[in-house]
Structure formats: structure tokens, C-alpha cells
Amino acid sequence: MRKVQNGKCIANISKKSILANKKRNSILLAAIILTTVMLTTLFTVISSLIKSLETATCYQVGTYTHAGFKYLTQEEYDKLKTDTKIYDLSYNVILGEVLNEELSEDYTEIRYTEPLCAKQSYSYPETGTLPQKYEEVATCTAVLDAFGVPHELGQILHLQLTNGFDTYEGDFKVCGIWEKPASTLTNEIYFSKEFQESFAPVWKNREDYNRYMQANSYAGSINPDFNFSSSFNITGKMDALKDRLGFGEEIKDGINWAYTTSELDATTVLIVAVILIMIILAGYLIIYNIFLIAITSDIHYYGLLKTIGMTNRQLKKMVLRQALFLSVIAIPVGMLLGYLISYFVVPLIANNMLTDACKVYPNGFVFLACAVFAWITVRISCAKPCRIIRKISPVEAVKFSDCPVEKLSKHKKAKWVTPFSMAWENLKRNKKRTTAVLLSMVLSVLMINVTVSIVSCFDEDKYISMFAGSDFSIADATLYNLSAIDKNLEGVSAQDMEALRAMDGVTESGAIYMEESEQKLEGDAWERMKKIYEEHTDWYVQSPDEKEWWDSCVYDRKEISSHLYGVDELVFHALELETDKVDWNTFCSGDYAIVSSMLDSDGNDADLALYQVGEKIPVQLPDGSTKEYEVIGIGDVPYVMGPMHSHGMDIYITIPAAEYLKVVPQAKGALQFMINVEKEYLEADEAYVEQYCDVTNQKLDFKSRKMYLQEFKDMVNMFLIVGGALSAILALIGILNFINLTYTSIHERKQELKILWSVGMTKKQIAFMLSFEGMLRMGLAFVLVLTVGQLLNYYVVYAIAGGMIMFTSHYVIWPMLACIPVFGVIAALIPRAMVKKIF
Question: Helix 763-786 and helix 814-835: axis angle, to 10°?
């Protein structure tokens, strides 16, 4: 068969077809742009969120390198330098520990570092340089604040250092300063190479390693960091590197878990999947509907093209050329708008998840994915209209009517004809178009209801109770400092409690005291422990070394870690009990104790307690003596009221505070002091507590409900704004779909409407009939929303928010009902506005 060069001709026809239908194509352009905007915003938000989470985790780890080794000797480092499959190798040397009291609240490391290592660790001086002279240091602003000196070069820091064998005390001049990222857990003080070689010479071999390990010191150890070719399979690459170098288990390696934990969790993935499906479905419905209307409206035109010899393939190519032409304009515009919108959405979402500032990260792959998904949506939307063209013959095209003629009944039945009945009959003339519009409207209303339902299910009290057990909680600053290694568990003195209790508006206050110890297990308690350990070894053992340790605890020493708590009435009433409620007055007798279970889950775990109600528990006291208490309940103090740590296998024993102070008379103070105040005194009392912790006793810190209330409100606003924006776009797509269908329907029936007018139907009746059509479409949409939509709403809400701790189920329907008059007015007014152009 001879091939005809007709590509240019088809392109020309496609272009003129587009120009001949500017109004319809403008709606199609808007639909493709809106779909692309939503896709671009979604993908940009997700990619930026992953990158921000990865960066925030790198801040916590303290470096953005892929991996590293800890505590190497010079021989081992020299061997590492020869490997050709690692990149950006740099190192630092630990000098020992800093002993200054000023730095007791924040964990501070002292090291010598190479410039590249400092940059990789977010600790390269922003002002000044790294130390070059013996008496110079570079450090972060947090250290300068701890010493109370200005953030200026040339300041003098008096430091006390130890390397495990010797101590050094002297003045050092600040030569470099930087601002530490908020998520970075440690402070750094960098010394010169000259001082490092003098105070903590690098370990030459394993003999030096063993000598320093006996002194429990890492001074002189080399700590290298490096990158692999990519962040994929870092664990496997590290294992291969150790095999190449001949490093055994004695060499400690470190893998940057930022590159293994920055993936989104299952709930987030589900949310993204649901939103992606809704975007594609919404885009498909309007684009498909517009193309379907275009094809059926121009079917006679396509029939004529077939008559003069144009093939099905050429017709399909012509339609796809039109779609491609519009997409080439709309998709880039949509991507640009979506990217700009992301600058607002990304910080809004990420600031509720991350402590450090986040930003939008441009990503070529994201734009490519958006373009592909947008084009796929357009291409799928063209499939059915193209099939209609392919199946119809030239003769059928001339006779084609998109409104099928129903077979007339043999039995004539007279019935009353009204604008409403005529509207209902007209509605049934093209079910496919009507269905597409209905689904568009259902999606937008459903999204609005889902957004409001999720927000209404967020329980403020549940959220705040996860972080604060009272209006104010006061403790030693080290307890609330996640990076602090040594926690002061007795930081709130009786004098502090008396001063804070004297505030105006205090309704109740109470303290919790704590002593860490070991609990010997005998008889039934040991048998229960042995049974739990053997049946649930995986709860405790993660490696062979750990199994050896836990085996020793259970079988040899027969003891586990314990916390002895002393609680006042405020804390007592907040206890999380697994058994029946305990009377405070009975508990206060001093003869009873509440013990914890071995598992803390959402269910009842009382059966897993080592001591059951009614049994005696011998409690080991700090002075070496033992006192027996009768177990009156199984339970534990809330996490936020305790020390906020555990030991894996442990038991918590709670007794009254008065009894605790009798059996632990050497107690210096309370673990935490809780205060509740009257609502009108909240702001004034918070200012007082803040001033007390900042000025009167600077070793104290506090938490308040108000801090977390703002976080809760920010999270709610995030859901409202993001969900509301998505709902608005979906609603706009639905309304555009409705406008397009209404316009096309009126345009196609122009002659029919004029005939009705000529036989006596008034313009007002015609307008009523068309308004009734629109309102009936909206009515059917809301029937779907209030039936099937309710079920979908339930499943979507539970899928997105059901697993959140602050979730409390609430049935919400008012957003759907509130949408009825709004969409009803739109459905009534749009046809009336369009019918005026006919007459």
C-alpha cells in the first residue's frame, strides 16, 4: 500500500478544530491545569517532606555522611584510607570529656576535627576559623550561652578537661563560632591539632586501645566518616567494606539511620495513595466528559472526514494531537502553579512534623512524574471518545444522535406535563454524561466531609495528655533534655515546690519521687518472669550478645531493674491501672504498693505482672534493707509523669510519697512537680514558672499544656487548610464539569428549545425546566453522598486517622448538608444565565 505523507494535513485539521471551539477548549485547559496543579503539589510536598525528614534526622545523627567507624587506631585508619570504594573520607579525634559545671545540662564533646569532617557534621565555623594554635577553640553558640559570654570571637573560655588519665585546666580563646541546628543533640568544642597531640595522642595500635578501654576513656581514638557511591543498601556496603579490610566485630561501625528511616510510614503512604487516586479520578471525570461531549457534538464532522477517506487511525491521531496540543500548554502551567503552591503547603505540613525549618526541594524527577501522570490522565480520558469514532460508520455518523430514542409503548397513557417532568426526562437522555458530573460532585463533597470528620475526631485532651500530665510540670532540665546523658532524678527541691505552690490560682499540686534499683525475684515472681522470658524472648533479645546478658539476669542473678516511685495524690489519680480502682486513703496507709506489668499495651496486661494483687512484694531499699508491701493494684505512672525511659525488662513499684520519704530519707528532691491552676491564672502563672526556671533556679525546666495546645491547633489547621484546598479544587473541577455539561446540553438543544417556545412554552418555563435539570443532577449527587458516600467517608477517615493516638470517633454529616444549598443555588442559576443567550 502506498504511504501518503498526510501528517502535516492532519496536524492542520487538528489545530483548526481547536481554534473552532475556544470556549470548550478553555474549560479543557482549565481542567488539565487543575489536575496538574494537584499532582505537582502532591508530589512536591511528598518529595520535600522525605528530604526534610532525611535532613532533620541527619541533624540528630550529627552528620550527613552515609557511614563511619568509631574508635579506630592509626593502623586501622591507614588501612581504611586505601579503600577505593569510599568517598569524602574525613575524621575527628576524641580528646576526652569536659568537666565544667556550666556544661552539665547539655552533652558536650571535645575533639580535634578535619575541616571536611566539621562541614559534614554541621559544625564548621560560620564566623572565624577552626583552631590553628594550641590555646584556640571553635564552638557553637549553645556553649557560649552556657558560659554566659557574647557570641563574639576572642572570648575566653575556662575549660576543665580529662582524658581518663590526666586532667587539664586552662583558658582558651574562641576563634570560630557557628549556630547549632535545633535537632542536633550534642555540642562540640574543637581544639587544635597541636593541643590534641599533646593532650590525647592518637592510638597507634590495639595495645593503646586496650589501655584506654581499661580506663573507660576514648581519648585519642580516630572516628572517620565517609560516603559510598549512593545511599542504597548502606548496610550491605558496610559489611562488604569490613570484609575487604578484614575488620571483625571488635571494630565498631556506624550507619547513618537517616538514610534508612526517612521513608514515609504506612499511614502517610495510604493518605498519599488516596489523594492520588482522587486527583486522577477527578481529572479523568472532567477531561473524559469534555472529550466525550466534543466527540458526540462533532460526530457529523468526523463522519464527513471518514467519507473523504480519513482512516480510524488518522482520526484517533487527530484527537490525540488536540489533546497533546492542549496538554503541552496546560501541563507546564499546572506544574509551575503547583510548585509555587508547594512553597506554602510544605512548611505548613512539615513544621508539624519536624523541629527544624524545612523548604521546598526542586526535583526534576518530581516534575517528570507529574507530567507523566497528567498525560496518562489525559490519555485515558481520550480512550472512550476515540473508540466511539472508530466504531461509527460515515452513514451512522450523519444519523447519529447522542440521545437514544426510546421504543414507544403501544398503550397510550395521558400524563400531566410540567417543566419538572420534562427536566426529569431530559436528564435520562444521556446517562454517561450525567454519571460523570455526579461523580465529580460526589468527590468534592466527600473530600470536604472527610476533612471536617478527621479534624473533629482529633481529641485535644488525648493529644496534650501524651506530653503533659498537668498544667505545669517542673523538673531538672536534664530530664527534659533528650540529648542529656546523665539525668538528675531528684532535681526539684522542697524549697522549689514550696515557692511554686505559692502561686495564685493553684488548685492542686503534687510530686513524684523516684529511686532506681534492682529487684530480686524469688518463688512465683521468678517463675512468671522465666515463663514470660522464654515465651517472648523477642521482646528483649535483639542480638546474641543481648541474649547472653538477659539469660544472666533471668537464670543466674534472678534480678531485673526497678523504679521505686513515691507519688502524691495528684499523680495517684493519674495512674494507669490494669485492675480495679484503688482508694487513696487505703493506699496512704503505707502498707500497700502498686506494681507494673511486664507489658504496656492497649489491652489489659495485669496477667503479665510478676506480682499479683494480694501478694507480698519485698522491695529493696537504697540502704540495703528490704520492706514488704501488699500489692493492691497493677499499673504504672503515665509516661510523661515518670523518668521517660525504661530498661527493657523492669518493674515499677509505686508507693505514697509520704511513705517513700520515710524509707528513702536521703532523697534530695522530686523527679517532677506537677501543678494545676485555675483557667484565668494560666498565663500569669506560666510567666511566673518561666521566670523561676530562668532566673531563680536555672537548673530547672518546665512543660505546660499551653505549649502543646498550640502544636495541636497547628496540626488541626494543617489538615483544614490542606484538606480545604484540595476540596476547593475538586469542587471547582466538579462545577466546571457541571457548567460544561449544561452549556453543551443547551447548545445542542437550541433548536429544540426554540420549538418548545414556538408552541407555547414561555421563556420562564424553559428556564425553570433547565434549572430543574441542574437541581436534579445535584439532588442525585447528594443522594449518593448521603448513602454510599457515608460508608466511604467512614473507611477513609479510619484509614487516615484511625491509628492516631488522639483519635476519638465522631459521626459528622453537617458539611454534606451545608453543601446542599450552595450547590443547589449553583445548579439553579447557571442554566438560567445560559438560557438567556438562546432567545
Answer: 160
